[in-house]
Amino acid sequence: xxxxxxxxxxxxxxxxxxxxxxxxxxxxxxxxxxxxxxxxxxxxxxxxxxxxxxxxxxxxxxxxxxxxxxxxxxxxxxxxxxxxxxxxxxxxxxxxxxxxxxxxxxxxxxxxxxxxxxxxxxxxxxxxxxxxxxxxxxxxxxxxxxxxxxxxxxxxxxxxxxxxxxxxxxxxxxxxxxxxxxxxxxxxxxxxxxxxxxxxxxxxxxxxxxxxxxx
Length: 215
Ligand SMILES: Nc1ncnc2c1ncn2[C@@H]1O[C@H](COP(=O)(O)OP(=O)(O)OP(=O)(O)O)[C@@H](O)[C@H]1O
Ligand SMILES: [Mg+2]
Fold this sequence. Notes:
Layout: E1 4-9, H1 16-29, E2 34-38, H2 44-54, H3 63-87, E3 91-95, H4 98-108, H5 113-124, E4 131-136, H6 139-147, H7 162-178, E5 183-187, H8 192-209
Parallel strand pairs: 1-3, 1-4, 2-3, 4-5
Helix pairs in contact: 1-8, 2-3, 3-4, 3-5, 4-5, 4-7
Bound molecules: adenosine-5'-triphosphate (ATP) and magnesium ion.
């Protein structure tokens, strides 16, 4: 596949969705063909799986069930949306991907990062991101941003205790150590314009290093 696959990762309220939109605009202005999408979802079947995962009434959901559902949604989303776009040579910007599963289910829910990685390998078949931007901000500060945004829907994972979000944050640090080539850290604890600037600079540098021409 000759496209370029970028994922945005980080805890709640880190700024992923906000920055994804500005990255898309910036890349489109430079003449790139861009597809933006989100995980788990972006297509009907995966959005339905997402609703099952996040429904507030599903308090009895087992951790492995949750991990398998995320992997299933991921698979369908790749097949229907991401693979075709990459085959056409597009840049795909995806809001959350495999690292979210490794951090949330693998580490924070203690299923094991390696175990969760292996079920995801079955789902993704070597389609790891070319670049992952990790939006680095403490959970406390990230969650504070969300709580001041009253329009945002509340989901089951928002109701988790602070301890869970701290573990997710710890997991992302471990992932950055484990995949230093792929995962680049963006300081998300800055004014939005600065975060956006850092994200585009990192992305542009990576495209250049991999000789993907700015058109
Ligand atoms: N650098 C920033 N400084 C201040 N506020 C910000 C910054 N980045 C984003 N925000 C605000 O914080 C809130 C959360 O941002 P956003 O929805 O982009 O986070 P997210 O990482 O996508 O979170 P989630 O994982 O919950 O989807 C939004 O109201 C957004 O406007
Ligand atoms: Mg978001």
